């Protein structure tokens, strides 16, 4: 049986039974446990499963929260454009900018399409495809492509990012809470964002009002690692005090 056929059958089993065991799959498909572990690693990269000792379980959080790029780009459009307009005015001359694969960051880059003095490093397949006629320079992180989020992930992407110093980093998130910090819904995407944060001189979090008070699958970073929050409406006084204590600048439309 070809790997793609085996993977599709494993996907069906996971969705039906919610969990799988390496030994059982090895016997069922007549392949070694190592082969099954590699299959489960691939399915984890897709976001379908979370590997456990001896097997894997259906990623319930990912299944409910993960929305493909097209759907995300059609959600809260006006809010994203308001945020993008603010951020675009903050980009200094000759800036190097690290960008994640979020739809909000994509909107920001549309505002910057005529800026030939800036250089963008991104793991977004959409940016590379749709902004090819823009005047700014584009560098790709490379990496394994996640076809649902149109992003590049994995060790290659992280290693590429480590080679650069970035004046600005633009990221979004799935949620942020006062107690827990900043959250994202996909581990591999979060790893890329963490690498961007590490290499950024100044980190900008682009988050509309729906992200406040929301917790997602995994923690991305602490609020103290963020320099600037840009949102579409003024946060509550409690949030503003929290930002002030963590020395975070806040801008809103």
UniProtKB/TrEMBL annotation:
<dbReference type="Pfam" id="PF08220">
    <property type="entry name" value="HTH_DeoR"/>
</dbReference>
<dbReference type="InterPro" id="IPR001034">
    <property type="entry name" value="DeoR_HTH"/>
</dbReference>
<dbReference type="InterPro" id="IPR037171">
    <property type="entry name" value="NagB/RpiA_transferase-like"/>
</dbReference>
<dbReference type="GO" id="GO:0003700">
    <property type="term" value="F:DNA-binding transcription factor activity"/>
</dbReference>
<dbReference type="Pfam" id="PF00455">
    <property type="entry name" value="DeoRC"/>
</dbReference>
<keyword id="KW-0238">DNA-binding</keyword>
<dbReference type="InterPro" id="IPR050313">
    <property type="entry name" value="Carb_Metab_HTH_regulators"/>
</dbReference>
<dbReference type="GO" id="GO:0003677">
    <property type="term" value="F:DNA binding"/>
</dbReference>
<keyword id="KW-0805">Transcription regulation</keyword>
<dbReference type="InterPro" id="IPR018356">
    <property type="entry name" value="Tscrpt_reg_HTH_DeoR_CS"/>
</dbReference>
<keyword id="KW-0804">Transcription</keyword>
<dbReference type="InterPro" id="IPR036390">
    <property type="entry name" value="WH_DNA-bd_sf"/>
</dbReference>
<feature type="domain" description="HTH deoR-type">
    <location>
        <begin position="3"/>
        <end position="58"/>
    </location>
</feature>
<protein>
    <submittedName>
        <fullName>DeoR family transcriptional regulator</fullName>
    </submittedName>
</protein>
<dbReference type="InterPro" id="IPR036388">
    <property type="entry name" value="WH-like_DNA-bd_sf"/>
</dbReference>
<dbReference type="InterPro" id="IPR014036">
    <property type="entry name" value="DeoR-like_C"/>
</dbReference>
